[in-house]
Structure formats: C-alpha cells, structure tokens
Design brief:
about 400 residues; Molybdenum Cofactor Biosythetic Enzyme, Chain A; Molybdopterin biosynthesis moea protein, domain 2; 6-stranded mixed beta sheet; 26 strands; binds ligand LQZAQKY5; binds molybdate ion
C-alpha cells in the first residue's frame, strides 16, 4: 500500500500541460493565469483627490485661515490652469489635483462663506491626495502566471486595461458510476437498490477545475457494459476519467480488470489512507484514470485528498496546497492503525473565541450525512497513539478552496 504523498508524486509525473486559451474578463473568474499581467500605465494615472472637499496649498490652509474659491475639479474633468496663491479649488473624489495644490481638505473640516472657504483643522502636505502610480506603475508585474484569478485579481486586470486574459485550459472530466444496485435520484427505489449519489458530489467538487464534467451515468456490474462505457469516454478524448465502485476485491468488482483489458497502464492500487484504501490510478494515452471506491465517504475523501490536488496541478496553479492548517482538538481521538485517517470534523469556537475542531465520531465510509455535517477532514497520522483534547492537529478544509 502506497503513502498518499508517494501516490501524488507518481500521479503528478503523468500530467501533461493542456495549453492555453484567451478568455474575456467576464469569463476569467476562477481560471488560472498563463501569461503575466504587466501594468501598461500608472494607477492612478495622475495625482488625484481621495475626498470630496477643497484642493489647497497646505502652507496656506489651517485653523482660522481662509482661501478664495477659484473653480471646480471633477472626476473626469480637471481644473484647467494654475491654482494661484490665496486660492483653493472645489474638488471631488477621483478628480485630478489642480496644478499648484498639494493637499485636499475634506468638506466636513471647512466652512463656506460665499466664495471664501475657511478651515477648521490643521492641514499637512499630501493629505487626502492619491499620488500618481501609488497603486501600480507602468511595467509592474501585477499578476504572475500560475495565479488563481480571484475577484480582486479580475478587478486588477481590468484596472490595468486588459479586456481579456490568457489562461490555462482546463481538463474535460467524465464520471462513471458502477453497480447493479444503483438507480438515479428520483427513481422509485426497488428492493436491494441504492440511489447513486457519488457522481453528483464528485461533479460538484471537481467542476471548478474542469472545462466540463460529463456524467456517463450508471453502468451494471458487467465487464462488457463497463468496457463499452469506458471506450466511449476514451473515444471522446476525456482528459480525466473518474469511476466509482467496483474497486475492491469482491467477485463483481470488475473495474480494474476491464481498465487493464482496454490498455490502461495501472500505476497503483491501494493507498495507506482511511477511508479510501482501494483507490486505483492508471493512464491510457492522454487520459488519467482514477478508480474511486464506491463507498460515498471513501469516494469523496479520495477526491479531496488525491483528485483535487491533481486537478489543481493540471490547471497550472503554482500553489496547489493550502498552508498547513492546524487547530486544537475539541475532543479526544482514539489510536490509529497503519493507514492515515481522514476523520470528519466540525470547526467550532471555544469559550475563549479560539478555533477548535470537534471530531465527529462516525467513521463508517458509507455514512454520507456525517460528511455533509463536517467542514473539514482531521488528518490523523499513520500509527498515531491517540490524542487528548487540546492536542494540535492538521485539518483539511473541505469546501473553501
Ligand atoms: N474483503 C474485502 N472487502 C472490502 C475491502 C477489502 O479490502 N477487503 N475494502 C473495503 C473498502 S475499504 C471499501 S472502500 C469498499 C470499496 O468497494 P468498491 O469500490 O468495490 O465499491 P462497491 O462495492 O461497488 O460499493 C461499496 C458501497 O458503496 C455504494 N455505492 C457504490 N456506488 C455508489 C454510488 N455511485 N453512489 C452511492 N453509493 C454507491 C454501494 O452500494 C456499496 O454500499 O470495499 C470494502 N470491501
Ligand atoms: O477505505 Mo474504505 O473506504 O475504508 O471503506
């Protein structure tokens, strides 16, 4: 049985870049940048006001002093000419600072008497002025390749005057569910039948990293039927194929056998993780194949711990891992065996406002409602002796990034 890190290293060795494409800003959210965003102008492009008020020479303004109003500067329409000594200019947020002014006084700190403006507070040079290039300067590298395009980064790319961005292509993913017992949600459930749920959870988890996720439906535990479904996925040029079920050693667990018959080079089967031990991984041409166990929690755990990091690599994210995230346990953990245990956990605040993780005692890999009630996996190391309340342990946040 392979350690999780070793498995990831082997999978990463098979990843081939998918190339790039150009997308408009509106379609760029959550994509990964392929070519750097370099500033083509200064931001702000000119010294500008940060407040609605009056542009002044700081040395002439101040408590008890007054200046003569010489005109107005609006955002989009500057005050033309020079602001002379003894003068001030009505100015609004974002307007260019008039020539001669070196500070802005917010209007709440002034009094207006006709065209005379007097000042209620001390004024310093540069006050409420945004200097040209203070945000970014022409030539600055604003966003590096390999960066996830978050909302703020999309806003920055737009501010740098780029209407479209070059991003990495995303893989086409297909999901196949196998099992004689499976029926689609909404069916009338016959004797011995189970509703197929893995494909829905997996698609929801993985679609942010996919060009599209194709649900290939349910296939019976019949080698010929499995073969036909797999062949059609390979013919469609799927980049990542995910199967669930039939991964173990049961008499009707055909998945591995059929994959091999179709020319899939199996790289590994079985990991030192719990749940999720029977995970298999192989490659056929350009397609990476993950054979996930059928148990619903095992399928989701292997998708979180193995498939998702792989997809982050495929889409070219430079940082595929969160910084290790450790918190104190709100309750004890029993000893662990030789497989790393991914336990369901709920993040809570203790009486002092500190974040803690409350272990959920349910460990059955078929028990999906307890996973749905969790917001993280607690990562208990292999052969851990057990932990007492308050001991610090790593957690993997489930649905935030
Ligand atoms: N003798 C052994 N038996 C088992 C071992 C073992 O090492 N020796 N490993 C166990 C472990 S660990 C797991 S995990 C499971 C994995 O089994 P399979 O991948 O073959 O999964 P199935 O048998 O097809 O299904 C297991 C379970 O999950 C339900 N299922 C399947 N597909 C779906 C789906 N799409 N949506 C919802 N639920 C699904 C299925 O009905 C079964 O209840 O093997 C252990 N056995
Ligand atoms: O690994 Mo299985 O997923 O323990 O039930």
């Amino acid at each position: 049985m392979l350690a999780v890190e070793e498995a990831l290293k082997r999978i990463y060795g098979h990843i081939k870049p998918l190339g790039t494409e150009t997308v408009p800003l509106r379609a760029a959210a959550n994509r990964v940048l392929a070519e750097p965003v370099i500033a083509r102008h200064n931001q702000p492009p000119f010294d500008s006001s940060a407040m609605d008020g009056y542009a002044v020479r700081a040395a002439e303004a101040g408590i008890g002093r007054s200046l003569t109003l010489a005109g107005t500067a609006q955002a989009g329409q500057r005050f033309v000419g020079m602001m002379d000594r003894g003068q001030c200019v009505r100015i609004f947020t974002g307007a260019p600072l008039p020539i001669g002014a070196d500070a802005v006084v917010m209007q709440e700190e002034t009094e207006v008497h006709g065209n005379q403006i007097s000042f209620l507070e001390a004024v310093r040079v540069g006050q409420s002025v945004r200097r040209q290039g203070n945000d970014f300067k022409r030539g600055d590298a604003l966003i590096a390749p390999g960066t996830l395009l978050t909302p703020a980064r999309i806003s920055l790319a737009a501010a740098s005057n780029l209407p479209e961005l070059v991003v990495n292509r995303r893989p086409r993913i297909a999901i196949l569910s196998s099992g004689d017992e499976l029926v689609q949600p909404g069916s009338s459930i016959g004797a011995d039948q189970i509703v197929s749920s893995n494909n829905f959870g997996l698609a929801a988890l993985l679609s942010p990293f996919a060009e599209r996720v194709v649900d290939l439906g349910i296939v019976r535990d019949d080698p010929k039927a499995i073969e036909a479904a797999l062949l059609s996925a390979f013919d469609d040029g799927i980049d990542v194929l995910i199967t669930s079920g039939g991964a173990s050693v049961g008499d009707r667990d055909y998945m591995q056998e059929v994959l091999k018959d179709l020319g899939v080079a199996m790289d590994f089967w079985k990991l030192r993780m719990r749940p999720g031990k029977p995970l298999m991984f192989g490659v056929r041409g350009r397609t990476l194949i993950f054979g996930l166990p059928g148990n619903p929690v095992s399928a989701m755990a292997t998708a979180h711990v193995v498939v998702k990091p792989t997809l982050k690599r495929i889409v070219g994210l430079a940082e595929t891992e969160w910084p290790r995230f450790t918190v104190a346990l709100a309750g004890p953990l029993p000893a662990n065996g030789p497989r790393r245990h991914y336990l369901r956990g709920k993040l809570i605040r203790n009486d002092f406002g500190m974040l803690e993780v409350d272990p959920i005692s349910e460990t059955d890999s078929g028990h999906i409602s307890s996973l749905a009630a969790s917001d993280c996996f607690i990562v208990q190391p292999e052969n851990d002796e057990g932990r007492s309340k308050g001991s610090v342990i790593e957690v993997i946040p489930l649905d935030w990034g």
